[in-house]
Design brief:
Elements lengths: L2 H20 L3 H8 L3 H27 L4 H37 L2 E3 L5 H14 L16 H4 L6 E6 L5 E9 L4 E9 L8 H15 L4 E6 L4 H9 L3 E3 L10 E6 L1
Parallel strand pairs: 4-5
Antiparallel strand pairs: 1-2, 2-3, 3-4, 5-7, 6-7
Helix pairs in contact: 1-3, 1-4, 2-4, 3-4
Amino acid sequence: MQIFEITIVSTVVVLLLVIFWSGISYPGFLRAAKMGTGGLVLVWGMVFLFIASVGIAFSYVYTGIQDDQLRRMTLLGIPMVMGIPFRFLIGFITKKWILKEATRRMIRPASNADVEAVTRLIYTVLEEYGLQPDPDDTDADLKDLESNYTNNGGSFDVLLNSRGQIVGTVGILKLKDQECELRKMYLDSAERGKGNGKLLLEYALNRAKELGYNRVVLETATVLNEAITLYRKYGFKKFELKNPSSRCDQMYYKEI
């Protein structure tokens, strides 16, 4: 076999091994594809370049071995050994960057067509934590997302799962010219513990900056321990508010 042929064979072998070892599922790859052609070309172009270099190196080693048995062992052994570091490389890229970006692109602006699904999700989470929905006061803003948020200097966005279902919500409500309130950040129970809370919070803070705000406030309840821990981790500080919402007993703010 010529060096070129060996390079092609060994490159394909290594590629198949690292894809298998990295746990890249077909649905996961489809979600990753949503990040855009440019991103995929950049990331996978780098990966293919690395793998091709392994193939070239292997081909030179292989052609320099005279013993037939050793050559057969090398043909199987080197791609497998060299594939190990690429397993971690592609696994890191896939799980920490590509799939994160794919998830980020599953956040979209909400419209009044989403009111029913959004309200159902939020009320379900409230009841899960023993909190009472308040459609006539605290939750009245859900009746018209566009007027209360989108068309009033704020935003309301939803997180979708792979089936297009709304599994998370977050809103930015205008209070003053440079101050807004983080509202209605909720996640379906099946979507917690996967980094989606961080995803929604980071997205909301970035949206607040884009809208020209430099201070974000929020109200929450003590029973929402996970959310409070997340807020504190991101630099929110506790303060006192004279007239908090009926079901809230803690208030936080953050300068951005």
